[in-house]
Amino acid sequence: MKYLYYLLTLGALAVSAFHYAGEPFLPASALAAVVFAAVLVSLTLFLLRRRPGIAHGVVWGFAVSGLAVELNTNMTHLLARAGLDWLGAAGYAPLTEEVLKFLGVLLICTCVIRPRSWLDYVFVGVAVGLGFTAGENATAFARMTVDNLDSDSAGVIGAVVIRLVSNPLSHSLFTGLSAYGLSQKQPVRWLIAAIMVHVTKNLFPSLSAAFDDAIWPVLAGLPVVVALWVATIWGAIALRKKAATTQCSLPERALA
Prior knowledge:
By secondary structure, the protein is mainly alpha-helical. The chain has nine helices and no strands. GO terms for molecular function: metallopeptidase activity.
């Protein structure tokens, strides 16, 4: 099974490399993508360095990011045939992305590490989500810069601001939920929960694109963005406190 994990990782990396080679990167968007990924990955590896499987999680998340975009592109055609193209990213991205990320958590926690508690599962999920974010935003920066090109620099600044405001850390929240479900032997239930939260995040931006002149999708989406930020920050604080408590209790159990 461990060899299957490495084979799937290499295959996903190859697909994603092909994907990113075809993206319309301009100098500013390419620089923004590299800097964003370098900062995010470095912080992830540093802050989670004492947890098992973190590097594997980051690599898997990045590896499937380009693959997810390719699958999402094909899903748009299926939605159009079903007359649901107005759903946009809410209709396909949550399913493909959450399943791919969850698969990584499953493989890493089964084939690579031996989780000691539910925290190990969740931290691997967080790492997968952050690795995915590093790759996904590279595509977003490239396309948004080209689509909103006042100039190379102005376009990428607008893209970066939009992605930062919309909570680029939310993928760690989604995958953390499904990873927790895996640790509790309830993977399907929590994976569905992660997909539905992801759908909620994507729904209003999709409706805003479908109804160009309507302001209500933007207004309705604001509470969702705020709620996701609150949930992400609260989750990070809660995980850190729980991890610190667990580490402090280990010597006591050893002495007992």
